[in-house]
Amino acid sequence: MSDSATPSPVRPKNQRGEIIAWCLYDWANSAYSTMYITVLVLYLQGAVLTGDSGVTIYGWGIGLTTAACAILSPILGAIADAHANKRTWLAITTMLGAGASALMFFGTPQHPWWFVAMFLIANLNYELVQSFYNAFLPEIADDDRMSNVSAWGYGTGYVGGGLMLVVALVLVSFGESWGLPTEDHFLPRLTLLVMGIWWAVFSLPMLLLVRDRAAPRHAGRSLVSTAMTGLREVKATLLEIRRYKMLAIFLIGFLIFNDGVMTVISQASVYAQKKFNLTQEELIPIFLMIQFVALPGALFMGWFANKIGQKNALHICLAIWVVVLFSGFLITEVWQFRIMAALTALVMGSTQSVSRTIMGLMTPEERTGEFFGFFNLSGKAFSMLGPIMFAEILTRTGSANWAILSLLVFFVVGWLIIAPLDIKKGQQQAGKDGSVR
After folding, report:
1. d(CA 378, CA 384)
2. Which of 143, 156, 332, 336 is the most buried (most CB within 10 A)?
3. Do residues 261 and 351 touch, judged by C-beta distance below 8 A?
4. What is the pLDDT of residue 134?
5. Which residues of the chain have pLDDT under 50?
6. Which own/partner pairs from 178-183 qualify as long-range (CB within 8 Å, at least 24 positions apart)?
7. What are the strands, taking DSSP E only, across 201-353?
């Protein structure tokens, strides 16, 4: 499985066209990340599978697909590095995810398991694309620009996701007056079809313009042979991880606190519904606000991290997350939830952007696919625990307060683990000069 384009190892970094295309990919797939925590979950739990079954399927579905992604990401990353074809794998997973998203349109309440199947396929591939997409960051930007480029990627994604949500809101609000049918929940299903098309179309600049820079190590070998080699390389990397001690510390800490981040994001609408009985029409404007507040938050933190150091910026983000979770347990009014949502927005992309930058700084350049596969593994290995734990506590206690507070353990433990992190030493262990904090 080889890429059609010849890798260009001498192509300079910081090319404007590549950076714009890379950022635009976040615009593309953020349509899914925004819609699945709003329209998708509300339609699933409000029409397709009502009651506790919808809550359980959503929580377990996210958990199981992220667990599958955790297993596949480092293996596929090693294969992509061996053939220097991350772009090809990005194209495959993108089109599978976007296609399944569009096909959710046919998942009417009369055919619930079609909808669930397409949701699982879409979510798995949405998770898989992240490792290939993120692995391009250290290839297109040097260490000095990486933080800003990472922040712009997340910022662009929040705008794209927000605009997709605006399109959904307009369709749901005015579709009937335009003569569109409303039976079988046609309008929310239509927004999911548009989401899939949006994801596919806006991915094209990235898929057409950005190329792998590394030379293939196993050109001409079969996919099965390369997969076996990839498994051996993954095993070898795990055995020699002591050579990258700082990277290992970061990955373990990220594994834990990122589970908390992703669970808060994926379960926010469930929390709001259960605690405040908010409707779809009330929730969508709140999530729109989150998208557009997250943009300046991510960009500011990208700039601020360069001033105070990436590790210090991550400490600030994690401290704010702790405040958010305590607030979620204590608040009693909808206006308080809006303030909490705005505070969450400020650190939502910032935490992931700073983490991605730290990973890029400590990654050997010739092994970006494999190491970002481990980054995805670290981000997903325990990510099934958060949504499942949230869903189980919510259904067993009936309390959204205890469900949201339970996530505090992920942030506290992850934060303690990264406390001894030394990014300069991590760069040196990766064969870099260690000039960035």
Report:
1. 12
2. 156
3. yes
4. 85
5. 1-9
6. none
7. none
Residues, the chain, total? Answer: 437
Q: Is residue 171 part of a domain?
A: yes
CB neighbours of residue 170 within 10 Å:
12
Tokens for 395, please give them: 């259904």
Other Cβ atoms less than 10 A from the Cβ of 242: the count is 8
Tokens of 148: 């800003």
Q: What is the CATH number of the domain that holds 44?
A: 1.20.1250.20
Specify the number of domains making up the chain: 1
Using alpha carbons only, give the angle 190, 334, 297 rounded to the nearest 5 degrees.
Answer: 75
Tokens 């010849």, residue located: 6
Residue 11 lies in a domain: no
State the Cα–Cα distance between residues 88 and 96, nearest whole angstrom: 12
The confidence score (pLDDT) of residue 220 equals: 59
Residue 381 is assigned to a structural domain of this protein = yes
Q: Which domain holds residue 93?
A: 16-429
Angle at which helix 86-103 crosses helix 16-35, to 10 degrees, equals: 30
Compute the distance between CA of residue 402 and CA of residue 398 in angstroms, rounded to an integer.
Answer: 9
Give how far the C-alpha of residue 47 lies from the chain's centroid of Cα atoms, to the nearest Å. 26
What's the CA gap between 56 and 41, in Å, rounded? 11
218-224 long-range contacts, CB within 8 A, separation 24+: 218/82, 218/83, 219/2, 219/83, 220/2, 221/82, 223/1, 223/79
Question: Is 2 within the bounds of a domain?
Answer: no
> Burial level of 364, CB count in 10 A (0-12/13-18/19+)?
middle
Catalogue the long-range contacts made by 289-293 (C-beta closer than 8 Å, 24 or more residues apart).
289/338, 289/341, 289/342, 289/345, 290/341, 290/342, 290/344, 290/345, 290/348, 291/34, 291/158, 291/159, 291/161, 291/162, 291/165, 291/345, 292/158, 292/159, 292/162, 293/342, 293/345, 293/346
